[in-house]
Amino acid sequence: MSFASKTLTRFCPLIAVLLAISSSVAQLPLARLSTVFPPGGKAGTTFEVTVTGSDLEEVQLHFPHANIISKPKLNDKTGEPEPNKFLVTVGADVPPGSYEARVFSRFGVSNPRAFLVGVLPEITSPATNHTVDSATGVPLGTVVNGRADANAVDHFRFTAKKGQRVLIECLARDIDSRMDDTLVLYDSGGRELARQRRGGLLDFIAPAEGQFILAASDFTYRGGEEYF
Predict the structure, then answer these.
(1) 196 with 142, same domain?
(2) Residue-wise pLDDT tens digits, 126-161
(3) Closest CA to 226 of 128, 127, 150
(4) H helices of the chain, where?
(5) CA angle 171–31–66, rounded 5-degree value
(6) Low-confidence ranges of the chain (pLDDT < 50)
(7) Does some domain include residue 100?
(8) Tens-place pLDDT, residues 34-60
(9) How far apart are CA 93 and CA 102, in angstroms?
């Protein structure tokens, strides 16, 4: 028997054991975190956060900063925790920036998702602003958290003074979103003033005082939980 044959004979049982272990591990559930929404919040505030994913059982939402604290959201009637919903408190001393959110569950620790902490007021976009007439009013200097619906465009309305510079940016790429964003800016008469495709900053100077409409959507009009 050659040396190669002896080596194979000695290690065949070990290979069989490793294959058996790998096969059993592959069949075990593994917590996967798909979305955290809203994907961030203002320092010094408390707000509701919902997580989605797979194999999320008995989960706890965890952040690396000691002053970003989450606790289960309790149902008002039963007092029991609502599945995958949390109340998150971001301490006033938490520096602005991106933090990794994970869930701890009975199936282990999940993958991370980006969670942004800022200093500006934040609102959540309703699901009813798909026309110009139903555009959501947004004060300048505000963060809007929203999701794209398939085959739909979200509309937002803001007021600016003549010569005022307005910067608008969609941070989809920075927050692990699948959205490939498109932003289009119109005046109150429906004339297009500026357009930004697939990320980047929309830098706009108001030509006159008045109201303006921002239309936001996925580039190919996709939508769903992971398009935020």
Answers:
(1) yes
(2) 999 999 999 999 999 999 999 999 999 999 999 999
(3) 150
(4) 3-26
(5) 60
(6) 1-20, 24
(7) yes
(8) 999 999 999 999 999 999 999 998 899
(9) 21
How far is residue 127's CA from residue 124's CA, in Å, rounded to a whole number? Answer: 9
Task: Kindly compute the dihedral angle of the four CA atoms of residues 86, 92, 96, 101, in this order, to the nearest 10 degrees.
Answer: -20
In angstroms, rounded to a whole number, what is the distance separating the alpha carbons of residues 202 and 31? 37
Q: Would residue 224 count as lying in a domain? A: no
CB 51, CB 86: distance < 8 Å: yes
In a domain, 225, yes or no: no
Amino acid symbol at 222:
R
pLDDT on residue 28: 76
The tokens of 31 are what?
Answer: 């917590």
Structural domain total, the chain = 3
Question: Does residue 227 contact residue 177 with C-beta atoms inside 8 Å?
Answer: yes
Among 84, 118, 152, give the residue marking a domain's end.
118
What residues have CB less than 8 Å from 14, skipping those under 6 apart? none
